[in-house]
Amino acid sequence: MIIELGHFALALALVVALVQSTVPLIGAQRNNASLMAVARTSALMQLVLILGAFGALMHAYITSDFSVIGVYENSHTTKPLIYKISGVWGNHEGSLLLWVSILALFGGGVAAFGTNLPPALRARALAVQGMISVGFVAFILFTSNPFLRITPTPAEGQGLNPLLQDPGLAFHPPMLYAGYVGFSMAFSFAVAALIEGRVDAAWARWVRPWTLAAWTFLTMGIGLGSWWAYYTLGWGGWWAWDPVENASFIPWLTGTALLHSAIVVEKREALKSWTILLAIITFSLSLLGTFLVRSGALTSVHSFAADPTRGVFILMLLGLAIGGSLTLYAIRAPHLQGGGLFAPISREGGLLINNLLLSTAAATVLLGTLYPLFTEVLSANKITVGPPYFDAVFIPLMVPLVLLIGIGPRLAWKRGDIAGALARVKFAGAATLAMLALSLVINGTRTTDIAGACGLAIAAYLAVASISEWIDRVRLTKSGAWTRIANLPRAAHGMTVAHLGMAVLIAGVSGATAWRQERIQTMAQGQTVEMAGYTMTFNGVKMVQGPNYAAGRADITVSRAGKTIATLLPELRTYDQPPQQTTFTSIHTTFYADLYAALGEPQGADGAFVTRFFYVPFVPFLWYGVLLMGLGGLISLSDRRLRVGAPQRAAAAMPLAQAAE
Amino acid sequence: MKRWPYILPLVAVLALGGIFAKRMVDIENGTDPSLIPTVLLDTPIPAFDLPPLPNRGEALRSEDLKGQVSLVNFWGSWCIACVSEHPALLAIAKEGDVPIHGVAWRDDPNKSLAWLAQRGDPYATVGQDPDSKTAIAFGVVAAPETFLVDKQGVIRYKQTGPITAADWKNKIKPLIAELKKK
Amino acid sequence: MKKLALFLAALCISSFALAVEPNEMLKDAGLEARAREVSKQLRCVQCQNETIDESHADIARAMRLLVRERITAGDTNDQIIAYMLSRYGDYVLLRPRFMSSTLILWVGPFVLLVLGGLVVVTRIRRGGTEGLALTEEEQKAVAALTELGEGGS
Which of A368-382, A472-486, B125-139, C139-153 has the lowest mean pLDDT? Predict the structure, then answer.
């Protein structure tokens, strides 16, 4: 019964979305307040209905109602509660419902908190949100319905892929989707602005918090996915330039560009049409990421070949959303008023180059990801574009960007003083050289050592440049610094923290790539292996019983200079349902480096096993970096000037304040 | 005012959409994009000398393939898709148009023999390739894969996945007739 | 103990394995390092975007063993990669070769960067730099606001 109610609520949501996508548009065109007000009520109604539908599905999963096909195919009674819940979005149909639920949350957010938005802009933005909702709710109802029943009701479910039964992956999709879908707000505001034919500083201020929120979620989502891959897949790596990873990384790159170009619109009313384009492209790439790549149309035939209607439907939907908005862009963007002038060397100029590099990087990753498809479709030639390509092309684009991050915030708006800015990054320059020398002395001078040292040096540069910029800005050494710190806009603190996070991340990537060590061997009970000054002793394998799996668990003692430091307990698990084997790695972290153990196959009958150990220095810095970047996003988000709906359009009428900021 | 820069993104997206659409049409038409076309087409077969299965005929040598049109089929007793292909191979052998040479790939010879005893034996000769060297030399990805070799020992066609009765009738058999004329 | 035996039996019949196995590895550490390096440049032809070095597939294992055999026989890394290329085509290379069909792939990013750079430069040039100096009023406003430490991003 609850399932039918959920199904009904979703169908009703489609009707409400249809109303939301049309009536407010007409209202805005005719300047009719009551028609425009429909946008708010319908967005809130949609929120209630879609959350109701989502709740109904979740109820079915929690109570293991196997009369629902999706529950039967993806759940099992013995599964721990958290994985019953995460099982809701562990499959195609449920993940789509999660997607529209988050969309409804964002729409509801604008309706509830965007009370200070001009009614016409709000009505139009919500109408665009309504259109997206119509498309995807219809897609769910007509091709991917999670509420379908199966008769007779099976007694037991088929269970969830054990790789997905993991806390990291349980929260990875909601985080990632919140990022993807969050960019729909920037998209809707961009389309609404194109309809209105007006983009100004106030517009940028309304868009920025949504973009910032989406960016923060996406950053954390990608980080979580990478972390999950690192600790579950048993190969000690964290990023493989896999199409699925790239699909989330490309919108992150354009989203980061958008975040920065929106600042220029806000402060200087320049780069308007470019910012609008970025907003459209970022959401378009998010759609591409969620639907085309995840569904496998790019990499394998299975999902779409199995159900071509889905493929055709999704292609039409993407065509309408992306093609439609870009058509509107082609018509309206040339008429957007150009904004403030600026010299090549200025904050705007720096942000423009930032945008150039980030967009080129995004285009490059997209090109590499889609290129095999291009050659296949156009010339029936099969090629592979793997990590060596991405490393070769991406890194040269990132190095100048990082150098720029150190200088950019030092440049004034309109016309900057490059000599002055360079003079003030001298500490950072010194730190770069010091780090380079230090690393070469400590780690040696093989090719990989030099690459690692350069990476660490760049990280040191960025860290020192970011911190010293903050110190100069609050004049930390002079009296009254505390007041200045308190008065500094949160967004400025956020920027420093996020850039610092970037520096930490770069240190993590460089160090973990350059100095990773690996030992693969067969070990009998009592045997030891030495690596990076640690001794690993293999004490044999015992059987253990988990809630829904049996496992062979190895006991490995880690010692250093005769002292026991840790015990690693990697497992080889066999899940009951579905019967499938996975490795469960065990990691000991020193907060600077990880010792990582994975258990392989047994060798012979005397209890010897294949073991593999990784020593990965700096790898925790990856996660610290991502956390810092996310934290930077949150701090910026708490800025009073960015509080959702807070800025008034009247503020735009004060050019003095604008110019001075 | 220059308009074209603003139309550029739309054009790019439309081109991309076209490629995606073509891909989907290809999939609809049964052109499986996961298949890797062999680069070995129209090149001589690699040299090999594979030992026979225990007490089953001669060894399989690349030299012996010359002078006659033949099929080379990579299979293994562990291969599930090979079971579904087998009736087609038996039918081809019965027709007698062309000899089928089997490569028992990455298999225990006794299991290979048991498999043939149970399901019937369509092969003129069977050679063992336990370490996959010949399979790699042929660019084989997954069993079953079948190569059509002409009188000069040149690869003229490759079937990835099981040969179906339709494949045989529509593609392979006509090609054999043509190759025999030369 | 019986349970453990059952568990071991289950493992042996399953195809579960973790990439490079100890019994595949070469005794000579230098040669083994070369084998790893070559393996990381070759794609497992049966898998999604995996090197033969990290793949569990049987064909990847066979290719790894062949790589090692060739290295032991004295082939150079390039000869081994060329051999795999001659058997499987460009699909087997994780780093696409520079050729006519990959021209856009390799050159595209830098063309894009240069074109984008040109657009940026002309835009800024066309805008000119006149009127960029702050007016007196603006300077006062700046002075007032910098006291608050404005200038965030």
Answer: C139-153
- Judging contacts by C-beta atoms under 8 Å, the chain C residues touching residue B141 are 45-46, 59, 88
The predicted structure's pLDDT at residue C7: 39
Stated pTM of the model: 0.90
Structural domains in chain C, CATH included, are 12-97 (1.10.8.640)
Nearest to A501 by CA among A331, A624, A344, A356: A624
Integer Cα distance of A128 and A136 in angstroms: 13
Measured between beta carbons, the chain B residues lying within 8 angstroms of C58 are: 106, 132
Pairing of strands B100-105, B70-75: parallel
CB pairs under 8 A, 24+ apart, for C44-49?
C45/B36, C45/B141, C45/C88, C45/C91, C45/C92, C46/B141, C46/B142, C48/A242, C48/A299, C48/A300, C49/A240, C49/A241, C49/A242, C49/A243, C49/A299, C49/A384, C49/A386
Give CA separation, A66 vs A55, A62, A71, A142, C112, in Å: 16, 11, 5, 22, 53
Q: What is the ipTM of this complex?
A: 0.88
Dihedral class, residue B32 (left if φ above 0, else alpha if ψ from -120 to 50, else beta): beta
The reply to whether A365 touches chain B by the CB within 8 Å rule is no
Asked if the Cβ–Cβ distance from B13 to A311 is below 8 Å, we say no
Least Cα separation, residue C1 to chain B (angstroms)? 30
CA pair distance A94, A84, nearest whole angstrom: 12
What residue of B is the nearest CA neighbor of A278? B9
Q: Rounded CA gap, A247 and A241, in Å?
A: 10
User: Which among C46, C84, C87 has the least Cβ separation from residue B142?
Assistant: C46
Instruction: Give the whole-number percent of chain B exceeding pLDDT 90.
Output: 60
Whether residue A382 and residue B26 make contact (CB cut-off 8 A), yes or no, is: no
Report how far residue A103's alpha carbon sits from residue A137's, in angstroms, rounded to the nearest whole number.
11
Over range C74-97, report the average pLDDT: 94
Find, among C125, C105, C107, the residue nearest to C117 by Cα.
C125
Check B10 against A327: CB less than 8 A apart.
Answer: yes
Asked if the bond preceding A24 is cis, omega within 30° of 0, the reply is: no
Please report, for residues A350, A352, C36, C128, the alpha-carbon distance to residue A415 in angstroms, rounded to integers and kept in the order given: 11, 14, 53, 12
Contact (CB<8Å) A389/C94: yes
Look-up: residue for tokens 């149909």?
A: A93
Contact C65 B131 (CB under 8 A): yes
Position B180, amino acid? K
- Calculate the average pLDDT of chain C: 76
- pLDDT tens sequence across C5-28: 333 333 333 334 457 888 888 888
Q: Is the pLDDT of residue B63 over 70?
A: yes
CB contact under 8 Å between A305 and B27, yes or no, is yes
Which residue shows structure tokens 């020992």? B153
Give the number of other Cβ atoms within 10 Å of residue B74's Cβ: 24
Neighbours of chain B (3+ CB pairs under 8 A): A, C
Test B106 with C65 for CB contact under 8 angstroms.
no
Q: Which homologous superfamily does the CATH classification assign to the domain defined by B49-181?
A: Glutaredoxin (3.40.30.10)
Q: Do residue C120 and residue A353 have CB atoms under 8 angstroms apart?
A: yes
In this complex, which chains have at least 3 CB pairs below 8 Å with chain A? B, C
What is the 3 state secondary structure string of chain C?
CHHHHHHHHHHHHCCCCCCCCHHHCCCCHHHHHHHHHHHCCEECCCCCCCECCCCCCHHHHHHHHHHHHHHHCCCCHHHHHHHHHHHHCHHHECCCCCCHHHHHHHHHHHHHHHHHHHHHHHHHHHHCCCCCCCCHHHHHHHHHHHCCCCCCC
**Residues of chain B contacting residue A380, judged by C-beta atoms under 8 Å apart:** 37
Domain segments of chain B as ranges: 1-30, 49-181
- Token pair 């991406």 is found at A394
Residues of chain B found within 8 Å of residue A378, distances taken between Cβ atoms:
19
